[in-house]
Amino acid sequence: MKYFVSICAWALLASVAFAGGGVEVDDVVARAERQRIEVMDRACRTAVAIFARGGQGGGSGVVISSDGYALSNFHVTSEAGAAMKCGMADGRLYDAVIVGFDPVGDVALIKLLGRDDFLHAELADSETVQAGDWVFAVGNPFLLATDFHPTVTYGIVSGVHRYQFPSGTLLEYTDCIQTDASINPGNSGGPLFNAQGQLIGINGRGSFEKRGRVNVGVGYAISINQIKNFMGHLKSGRILDHATLGARVAADDEGRVVVSDILEDADAYQRGLRYGDEIVAFGGRPIRTANAFKNVLGIFPKGWQVPLAYRHEGKLVEAYVRLSGVHSEQQLIDLVAREQESEIPEPKDGKQPGEPKPNEAPRKANPHAKPDAPMPEIVKEHYEARRGYANYWFNRQNVARVWAKSTAAGDYRTLGGAWTLEGRLLADNDSSIRLDDAHVVCRLPGGDLKLDVGDDLSSAVEPAGSGGMLAALHLWRRLLFKGPEQFGELHYVGTVPLPGRSGLVDLLSGTVAAVQCQFFFDPATGDLLKVEMYPHAGEDPCELVFGEFREQEGRRLPMRLEVHYDNRIYAAFDWSKIEFAPAGGRKP
Amino acid sequence: MNDLPRKCIALVGLLVAFGACDHLSLAAQAPNASFAGVIERTRPKIVKIYGAGGYRGLESYQSGFLISPEGHVLTVWSYVLDSDVITVTLDDGRKFEAKLLAADPRLELAVLKVEAQGLPAFDLGQSVEASEGMRVLAFSNLFGVATGDEPVSVQHGSVAACTKLEARRGTYETPYKGPVFVLDAMTNNPGAAGGALTDRDGRLLGMLGKELRNSLTNIWLNYAIPTREMATTVEEIRAGRFVAQRAAPDAPKPAHPLTLDLLGIVVVPEVLDRTPPFIDEVRIGSPAAEAGLKPDDLIVFVGERLVPTSKALRDELERIDRIDRVKLTVTRGQDLIEVTLTASDAEN
Fold it and tell me: Cα dist. A565→A266, A288, A458, A539, A569 in Å?
């Protein structure tokens, strides 16, 4: 009997030792595995399987906010048009609407509708990503997930700051993350996560050559830091453009990156950049190769002011340059239309012609496809078509948001009378400015200057050397008093940096009285920080820079005004008194 | 209380079981730790190589790695190196014109030399053995992704098999038939050949081979040639014992050298400076015909010397006395064929 019990005990022991496979694994490994499962499980629940309306192809995406904003590739959403269906790991299918897209950078922002408590991915700082880091991709390769539960593939980062030429399309991958995690057709637009489950990029492309359009261990993800730069712009509902410096660069024999060609109307030219100058740093990064330069250009939207350091005749010059667009509005619209129409032929014998192609989901003729399926009601409520826009509805929302914040900081809409600012110019001379609907009068040491406001401000560049300070002041008052609805044509551009200030600010832009003007708002306080007026395209703007905001009668008033023009400060006013007369009122 | 001792025994047994399993522990390092440190240390040893090619499907670049601080570079022997100018770009972006010291077509390897000192390098003598299941890193400039001082790409995977390529003869076509590490990662891409395979600590295991496709199944094989297979040849090349590609110019020439005519070989007309020595015609009854050489064979070696052009072939034959036996290596399709022949004594 004892013998029998003993045998039983050993048998039990043996079964414990074998059956509990996990028991044998080192606790560190088991813990890491559990952690990885948890991280991947959570990440999977933020991924989206995107299906074009009517079943015409699809791809992947990832939710980045609780109210349903989600990122994907332009080449995925361009299939779908304005409305699409998005499946998530919870098994539910959501309606989604296009918000904005960046066709050159191959990024699209969409919004899933019907909830405000979406589980969403946390955005990482992709600058910290290094070759060798463990990463995993989540998505819907080969459109396998009919229950919307995504596929996870894992690998390491193979390289960072990669530059990939446009491949016969307008898609240019700059500064991207290279990974050996499997990226296959259908993974496009899906997330690439770091080991902590933070979003580091959007998968979109692979190097394929003679092996057909399947993974060969070389996939590319658009870095999330680049997308962060474009995020405000994407939310504007516009079709976005990429930037150019208006100059070409090339590496010379000594390995320096030098300007090989420059346009005279480029902003960089106005900041003194010339043929043969060496580019030292751009966008805060040292530049040692032509690819590094192109990488920096690729991560910023058109219109951003970016620091540039260059060596001109042996002297180091540092300046902020405005990046201009690569395409005209019409070119951009045409390119997008072409991209949406283009059909990539089915692979023949599993082979594709030489150029790498973006990872689109396999496109098969779907007998159930209904391309003309009606737009769902909930999408209709969030969509407004307009030329040059992916979805104008979101632009109006943002203009309203910025204006609401601005009026909270100071409501001027009842102040239709004269505005008087009194103080000192350059801490030296008494000065004042008086503004009403039809006039701007400025007292300067040289005497009074007066502008009669007409329908065309493009020739109103006085005082000489200011670039049009009086006209710009009129526009400042006009916006604050009339608001964006009455001001004239005004739209939301997105978010941009301001030189010397950390963080991004909201930008409204428009054309009124034949001049182009831009208004920069602090997104936190609603303060109108800066006004730029461009009397003529390709010339320097007159910049009004407001500061020293102080609360007075429920309004945050700028007690300092600097006027910048042509690489210098034209004037700086410190106001001691700002007064407003109500509409119809008249101040002596 | 009676069964308490038994419980103790069981507990001890369990502890023993744990102890016995200890050697299976995978936790030598934190499981989720990044390879960033290892990669940072290893990448400076990898070089980008540029040479001939650039036509459709023939990339003009490949990978290599430093095997001495004095600038010896190990890479695969390929058409890329068949160029007047071979450029080697180091990890720091410095560019060098490299000298081809020698190539061994059987191992498909070549050793280049750049004039530099104090370079970070692998030590072939310190390399380790790979085993099946071992986790590995592959460093290469696949697809030519990196240029200048941009770091090369790195991929991870496991050794799927340690086997011989000749096991696949007739299916995979390659001159090299020896032992390889078969990898489960997509490492052997365009431009990756000549890259380094290391373990997770960055210790050299082998050299990434060329692209290899099974023509029947369209399956691509990813493999590396083990360091041990190459070490001796590389050592001989570095020591100058391996017969160099070109003989010393002052070597005495025999009074009655060998000629193609004596062998019964007619090569294709030299229309270009660098016409490769393809056999155009083999004269009936000649030593070449008896040795089995055929039209369209490409002569690649005379003895141990590489002859990339018809001119090099003639120069090489001039150094051989017509009474001596000569070994020719030709490629026919994907096969390397060696023949030994003696000149016809008709004229003697």
Answer: 16, 32, 16, 10, 6
The architecture CATH gives domain A45-242+327-385? Beta Barrel (2.40)
**Which CATH fold would you assign to the domain A396-580?**
outer membrane lipoprotein receptor (LolB), chain A (2.50.20)
What CATH class is the domain B36-239?
mainly beta
Tokens of A522: 């602090």
> Scanning the structure block, which residue is given the tokens 């050559």?
A209
Confidence check: pLDDT of A11 > 80: no
Highest average pLDDT, of A148-157, B9-18, B76-85, comes from: A148-157
- CA gap A67, A55 in Å, rounded: 25
According to CATH, the superfamily of the domain at A243-325 is PDZ domain (2.30.42.10)
Could you give the angle at which helices A2-19 and B4-21 cross, rounded to 10 degrees? Answer: 30
A522 given a catalytic annotation: no
Say which residues have a Cβ less than 8 Å from residue B196's Cβ, sequence separation at least 6. B42, B45, B46, B63, B65, B122, B138, B139, B140, B204, B206, B207, B208
**In this complex, do A218 and B142 lie within 8 Å of one another by their Cβ atoms?**
yes
Q: Kindly list the domain boundaries of chain B, sorted by start residue.
A: 36-239, 260-342
* Contact by Cβ (8 Å): A276, A299: no
**A331-388: per-residue pLDDT in tens?**
888 878 777 665 333 333 333 333 334 444 444 444 444 556 688 999 999 999 998 8
Task: Answer yes or no: CATH 2.30.42.10 is held by domain B260-342.
Answer: yes
Phi, psi of A491 (to 5 degrees): -135, 165
Looking at residue A157, its amino acid is: V
* ipTM higher than threshold 0.85: no
Tens of pLDDT, residues A525-554: 999 999 999 988 778 899 999 999 999 989
Closest CA to A158 of B268, B194, B35, B300: B35
Closest partner residue to A24 among B24, B40, B153, by Cβ? B24
In A398-446, the DSSP E strands lie at 419-425, 429-435, 439-444
Angle, CA B88 vertex, CA B84 and CA B92 arms, to 5°: 160
Full-model pTM = 0.80
Peptide bond into A141 cis (omega under 30): no
Check CB contact under 8 Å for B32 and A134. Answer: yes
Let me know: does B121 contact A194? Beta carbons within 8 Å. Answer: no
Q: Where are the domains of chain A?
A: 2-32, 45-242+327-385, 243-325, 396-580
pLDDT score, position A490:
93
Interface mutation vs chain A, best among B143, B188, B201, B223, most A CBs within 10 Å: B143
pLDDT reported for residue A274: 94
Cα distance from A160 to chain B (closest Cα, Å)?
9
Q: Which of A95, A102, A106, A522 is catalytic?
A: A106
